[in-house]
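Contributing new records

If you add data, match the layout below exactly. Sequence lines come first and carry their own label; structure lines follow with theirs. Keep one chain per record. Anything else will be rejected by the validation script.
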Amino acid sequence: MSAVALLEACVANLDAHEEAVNATIWVDREGAFAAARAADAEHAAGGPIGPLHGLPLAHKDMYYQAGRLSTCGSAIREDFVPSYSATVIERLAASGAYAFAGLNMAEFAQNGTGHNRHHGDCRNPWNLKYITGGSSSGSGAAVASRFTFAALGSDTGGSIRLPAAANGVSGIKPTQTRVSRYGVMPLSFSADNCRPARPHRARLCPDPERHRRARPARPDQCRNACARLRGWAERRPPRRARRRAHDLLPG
């Protein structure tokens, strides 16, 4: 499969569902297709290729990329264009990947729901009425919607883990400083982490509207869960009949 074909698949999903999901802040289509064609040409020429050669990615819009917009989810930085790139962006590029979009996020990574009054709220592709979690809202939603094969986010107080859980994707929170934070918008020096999000193989959401209709109603799920819980509680032996931990210890 060619790099251009990979990008076309991402763009097709983006065109079909971005209006509903609102996962991106900016998209560089022209630059992306130029990068994909260059990757295919390098492969055809037999040149050296990296492990992520020709892979289109999109990242939370707080990772600096030289010459590209980096809003950090705020109107204050709507025209901010850094002159240098984050270390993680450079390392991904060295592996052959390229970025084609900046993803929606909570303003300055400051809330856990992902809401954003400046660029519009990012919506959960599994159910558009639900939140995506934040602050890496666009990273979780874009990966779940197949807009990108993976995305960078950040975690200071849950911004990796919340969107990953809410959108059904895998999010990695590495040991702090294990991944360089150079060129990434700082929030808390003692707590910031950089991370990737990638899809669960069995939990992709190619058609958010179809999946929303197919899911059972939430009240039914709650009633079923409560019924199972009541049944378990009724079968559970009385507290007095249960042995405590200290009963198992020697005299």
